[in-house]
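Service request form, structural biology core

Requester: graduate student, group of Dr. S.
Request type: structure prediction, single chain
Budget code: on file
Notes: please return the result as structure tokens.

Sequence provided:
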Amino acid sequence: MHLKALSMFAAVLLVAACAGQEMESVSSEGTMESSGQVAAGPAAGSAQDFLVNVGDRVFFGYDRFNLTAEARATLERQAVWLNQYSSARINVEGHADERGTREYNLALGDRRASAVKNYLVANGVSAGRITTISYGKEQPAMLGSNEAAWAQNRRGVSIIN
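Core staff response, request fulfilled:
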């Protein structure tokens, strides 16, 4: 009976110790020193918080600029975050895959960026906080001439300024 209680107590201590791990470093003398800081995720309201906890990109079909259900779900999370952090400004980039002319893909990227902006505005984000730019096929996320690469390059990316 005592062994069970002792085992439970040890398990609780182990979980508590893992949850509140402090940052440690090695001193010049070779001993471990604690900074007193607890390791944590990104700061609330930061660009990293947006990237990690909300998501910064949506994807489009071939030759399309309409938003998929998955894209709308991501943009709804973005709108909630942007409405919570009302001083944040955002730049929406529109991208295309390598197929098509430079001019066509710049226009397609512009329509994609505008689709993202319009959805955010429809969800309460002030249009004055959002700028758009099209890179067309000039800044691929993934190199390659195959469907896997093209799918990653047909995107709208929201970047916190």
